[in-house]
Design a protein that fits this description.
The protein is of the alpha/beta class. It is built from 16 helices and 17 strands. The termini are far apart.
């Protein structure tokens, strides 16, 4: 049975030494109870307490990290079924699969556009996370050449796919010092694959067509000393894969069933056509994959998947924010207009992108509103005339513009009277309600 934070606290040294990275032992105990940290962070816990706390402090879904050349992809350590209950922590990695029946040059050509892909979304760079190399030739030398070509084209983490231990060993030899994911162990080859994973310090995928068989295999493999496991329920249909993923997540979190307490990998690329791949990949990101492997890189497919992932894995209690301050758009001069908004990231980029896209120079004052949108911040008392006036002074706005005029968002026109009182000598203008209407307003009314 899981222990409460107070029960865990009583077993800790209670010295508040901060060596664990938390200000007090009680704070550390609460994190342990929430399965958000590992007991190993406390260097002073007694062996007796360690043994008693080990089961309780272990996260319900083990954290698995793939690493290469300073890049990493993490999956696991999740503690809730649904995002609104708390938050999700580690975004599923999105991988592109190439196969070893391609020449090294063709592999590099297939990887290049995915490797170069980067799109800025509300201040966050969205990119692919890694690549998967699959052996279809069954030849160790061919697979090794494909892995070498892939590593020559990217420094991101890799997934190696082959059911043949000899082929897998040849691929692993090309990744010395890295922590890849090898895929996969099944009822026929699990011992050889477990030995490879252990000797190369790699994570290991366990594949089976039933949850009972999955649980049995993870028990056998973990008994051999391989702890970083990833589950592949081997269901490829939309309905069956959703059911399996939900059952695994529920058993791990609700029942604390350790044999299935690992992240999952899915292969939407097996679906075939682009439409089905997109749908299955989107479902996998939402429910509940740790690694998602696709077979074709299409920017128009990858971008919405990455945006979906970013939205789902953004902490609902901590909105994405930009730094408050005075921002320049299109090299404004002292005669350019001054706009104002909150520091909610989507609000900021909506305004900035519309004005920048129209080629209009402007100053944009971003006020501190705890990451809330304009209407939400106004309703919560976080975006008012006093805060706006304070930030105008704090960021030295008057020193950079000739005309003392400020444009309020149309949704908070009610603030105009109060702002006139708090900013005497300034002309208060009310802009449009929607960012898309800003360019027209700026051309016609300013």
């Amino acid at each position: 049975m899981a222990l409460s934070g107070i029960q865990i606290y009583k077993m800790l040294p209670r010295t508040n030494c901060k060596d664990c990275g938390f200000p007090t032992c009680l704070a550390f105990a609460m994190k342990l109870a929430a399965k958000q940290v590992e007991l190993a962070l406390c260097p002073h816990v007694s062996d007796e307490s360690k043994a008693e706390l080990a089961e309780s402090s272990a996260p319900p879904i083990r954290l698995v990290t793939l690493s290469a050349n300073g890049n990493s992809v993490k999956a696991g350590n999740e503690v809730v079924m649904f995002r609104h209950e708390k938050t999700f922590y580690n975004m599923p990695g999105l991988f592109l699969r190439v196969k070893d029946d391609l020449s090294p040059e063709a592999i590099k050509a297939a990887i290049a556009p995915a490797e170069a892909f980067k799109v800025n979304y509300v201040g966050i760079d969205l990119t692919m996370d890694g690549f998967a190399v699959e052996s279809v030739s069954g030849d160790p030398a061919t697979f090794a050449a494909a892995v070498k070509a892939t590593r020559g084209a990217t420094k991101r983490p890799l997934v190696l796919i082959s059911g043949d231990a000899a082929v897998m060993a040849a691929g692993l030899e090309q990744l010395d010092g890295e922590a890849p994911l090898i895929c996969s162990a099944n009822s026929d080859n699990w011992e050889a694959m477990a030995d490879l994973a252990k000797s190369h310090k790699a994570a290991l995928t366990v594949s089976a067509t039933s949850l009972d068989e999955l649980a049995e295999l993870t028990g056998k493999i973990s008994a051999k000393g391989v702890e970083d496991l990833v589950l592949d329920p081997a269901f490829r249909q939309l309905n069956s894969s959703l059911i399996a993923a939900t059952q695994i997540r529920r058993l791990a979190l609700r029942k604390n069933f350790r044999a299935l307490g690992y992240p999952m990998i899915t292969f939407p690329g097996d679906a075939g056509d682009v439409g089905r791949v997109s749908v299955q990949a989107a479902q996998a990101i939402a429910k509940y994959a740790g690694f998602v492997v696709i077979d074709e890189f299409l920017p128009e497919m990858v971008y919405p998947l990455l945006v979906l992932r970013q939205n789902i894995y953004t902490d609902p209690q901590k909105p994405i924010q930009v730094q408050p301050g005075l921002y320049e758009i299109n090299n404004p001069t002292a005669d350019s207009p001054l706009l104002v908004t909150t520091n909610f990231s989507i609000t900021y980029f909506s305004v900035a992108n519309e004005v920048e896209g129209a080629g209009l120079p402007a100053w944009l004052l971003v006020t501190e509103a705890e990451g809330m949108s304009v209407l939400t911040a106004w309703a919560a008392g976080k975006f008012d005339s006093e805060r706006i006036a304070k930030d105008v002074k704090r960021f030295g706005v008057a020193e950079k513009i000739n005309k003392k005029q400020i444009v309020l968002p149309g949704h908070v026109a009610v603030l105009s009277g109060e702002l006139e009182e708090d900013m005497p000598g300034w002309e208060i203008r009310v802009g449009p309600r929607e960012a898309v209407d800003l360019p027209g307003f700026m051309r016609d009314a300013l």
